Amino acid sequence: MKALGLMSGTSLDGIDLAVIETDGERIEALGPVLTVPHLPATRAACREASRLAAGWRPGNAVPDAVLDAAARITEAHRLAIHHFLRQEDEAAGVEVIGFHGQTIMHRPGEGLTWQIGDAQVLADEFGIDVVGQMRLADVRAGGQGAPLAPLYHRALASGLEGPVAVLNLGGVGNVTWIAPGAEPVAFDTGPGNALIDDWALQHTGAPVDRDGALAGAGRIHHEVLAAMMDHPFFDEPAPKSLDRDDFSAAPARGLSPEDGAATLTAFTVETVAAAGRHYPAPVTRVLVTGGGRLNPVLMAMLEKRLGVSVEPVEAVGWRGDSLEAEAFGFLAVRSLKGLPLSVPGTTGVPRPLTGGQLFRPRRMSR
């Protein structure tokens, strides 16, 4: 099937779109990709929605600001898909859309995960089946609901020697351990770019520490780093997952902009190093996807700390800017075929479990 995968991550940089042709097990072909940046107003609305969702409980009314953010996210996806389909002839004939939505809250320990965005609107608009809400079944069955890309990582890595780690450094970091003949193991490692991005925005007005320039000019405060690593999450067994706001940059308060950025970057590195304790066997290679792979200071610190080869996924021919979007196209096809989206080693779900909700068009597309 030809699937269009969509991803808007917790870093809130934009919407990634990618076409993939797959039977849900093998990757037959990869089609065009596009990234559409979010408008500042959409980013602000989603940050406010996340803030309010942190205090929300089932049974409470959904705050108006969350409804506003959901409408903005839906419209952003609608416009992005229109633009993509108009400019990419190879996207013609898409049979299913894999829609992740925007996570504003993730508390799997309470059986809660919340992705906003209206998949039915997209199905109606384009006259194409949409698979959404892909995390819900896993969380309701007692799984972490994240990460969900590992089965796609496994399909991509079928020809690689292992064990390898696929490290996704988005707003939250997560890793997939892959070895031939073994079930993948996956879990969130800790903050990826979230704290670094928030710090850069607060101190420079820029939404990211571009090229790691701020961190590269600073000094790591090891006492602050040690305090941040003194958190029970890092000792919890895998699989495990995080909400974007489970960690805070507060311990770095009072540091200079440069030293704070350096210390928070080192914190991301240390969380990845700590993740190695939970691998079934050591890895000899780390392949990095997500925005973090574009930060040369972060990448150099990772390689020095881990003592193994640390490379962007482009080193093996993968597309780091679209990997998550490709994964949700892949998962949409798996959902339609009743194949598992998660397994015990990736989310802690009790058994291999399919998921996703199918939204069929209620009328013809325009």
Provide keyphrases for this structure.
366 residues, alpha/beta, Nucleotidyltransferase, domain 5, six-stranded mixed beta sheet, five-stranded mixed beta sheet
Classified by CATH, the class of the largest domain is Alpha Beta
User: What's the SSE pattern?
Assistant: EEEHHEEEHEHHEEEHHHHEHEHHE
Number of strands: 13
What best-fitting shape do the alpha-carbon axes yield?
Answer: globular
- How many helical elements? 12
**Uncertain parts:** none
Span from first to last CA?
23 Å
What share of the residues does DSSP label as strand, in percent? 15-25%
Radius of gyration: 19 Å
Strand order of the biggest β-sheet:
3-2-1-4-7-13
How do the strands and helices of this protein lay out in sequence?
Layout: E1 2-7, E2 14-22, E3 27-37, H1 40-53, H2 64-87, E4 96-99, E5 102-107, E6 112-116, H3 119-126, E7 129-132, H4 136-140, H5 150-156, E8 164-169, E9 172-178, E10 185-191, H6 194-204, H7 213-216, H8 222-229, H9 257-275, E11 285-289, H10 296-306, E12 309-312, H11 323-336, H12 344-347, E13 357-359
Parallel strand pairs: 1-4, 4-7, 8-11, 11-12
Antiparallel strand pairs: 1-2, 2-3, 5-6, 7-13, 8-9, 9-10
Characterise this structure.
- By secondary structure, the protein is an alpha/beta fold.
- It folds into 2 domains: 2-145 and 328-359, ATPase, nucleotide binding domain (Nucleotidyltransferase, domain 5); 150-316, ATPase, nucleotide binding domain (Nucleotidyltransferase, domain 5, 2-Layer Sandwich), CATH 3.30.420.40.
- Helix content is 35%, strand content 21%.
- It is built from 12 helices and 13 strands.
- The strands form 3 sheets. Strands 3-2-1-4-7-13 form a 6-stranded mixed beta sheet, sandwiched between helices.
- The chain is globular.
- The relative contact order is 0.18.
- The model has no long low-confidence stretch (mean pLDDT 96).
